[in-house]
Amino acid sequence: MKSTTQAKNKFIHFFRHSHQEIHELSEQLQQTLTRLQFEGKIYRGRNLKQLMEVVEGLEDKALTHMSFQEVVLFPFLETHVPKLESLLQLLRSEHREFESHLMKLKASVQKWLKQRSESSHASLMQGIQEIGMCLIFFLRSHLSVEEKSIYTVMESSLKKDERSKLAELMKKGENKKIRWKLAVS
Ligand SMILES: [Fe+2]
Questions:
Q1: How close is the Cα of 144 to the center of ligand 1, in Å?
Q2: Distance from residue 113's CA to the centre of ligand 1 (Å)
Q3: CATH code for position 123
Q4: Residue 98 located in a structural domain
Q5: What Rg, from alpha-carbon coordinates, does the chain have?
Q6: Ligand 1 center to residue 151 CA distance, Å?
Q7: What is the CB neighbour count within 10 angstroms for residue 77?
């Protein structure tokens, strides 16, 4: 009994831990945007550099996590928990939307880092704040839906043999080091 519970906890821990890392990056994004807005010109260079680090962190952690879900977890759930099919389609399309917002934010930060003219700073700041806040709210909603739906189903509905099968697929996926490009090709 104890080993079954431990295996179950370890199994879900992998996905919940990834979400925790993404939640932390989202929090860092919000803090960095606030500093960029209120700390003024003297700290602008430092804050933009930190913003780029957070964006690259999200690109690495969140997109890798999403591709892992799409290549390993979602196909498994579609087979074993058919009632989730339409929700999984929605989550896939949200992944694309997230990637699009993130790339827009990255492009805006890169543009500002290269910008020499002071005159366009106000519009660049406004654009970055809008995309950044949109990304934060989007992520909160997306992660919350996944935690309340697919993660809860995984914890409560999968049988022992199904959990073993998924654990095996996850191990293979980790070994392949699945990246986002594999999921969208
Ligand atoms: Fe997701």
A1: 10
A2: 30
A3: 1.20.120.520
A4: yes
A5: 19
A6: 11
A7: 23
Q: Give the count of domains, the chain.
A: 1
Return the number of other C-beta atoms located less than 10 Å from residue 102's C-beta.
20
Residue 3 resides in a domain? no
87 Cα to the center of ligand 1, angstroms: 11
What is the whole-number distance in angstroms between the Cα of residue 174 and the centre of ligand 1?
17
Range of the domain at 101: 8-184
At 89-130, the pLDDT tens digits run: 999 999 999 999 999 999 999 988 887 667 677 788 889 999
Q: What is the dihedral of CA 65, 34, 135, 131, to 10 degrees?
A: -130
What is the pTM for the complete model shown?
Answer: 0.85
CA of 35 relative to ligand 1 center, distance in Å: 28
**Is 2 inside any structural domain?**
no
The set of residues, in sequence order, having a beta carbon less than 8 Å from that of 181 and lying 6+ positions away, is: 67
Q: Tell me if 1 is assigned to some domain.
A: no
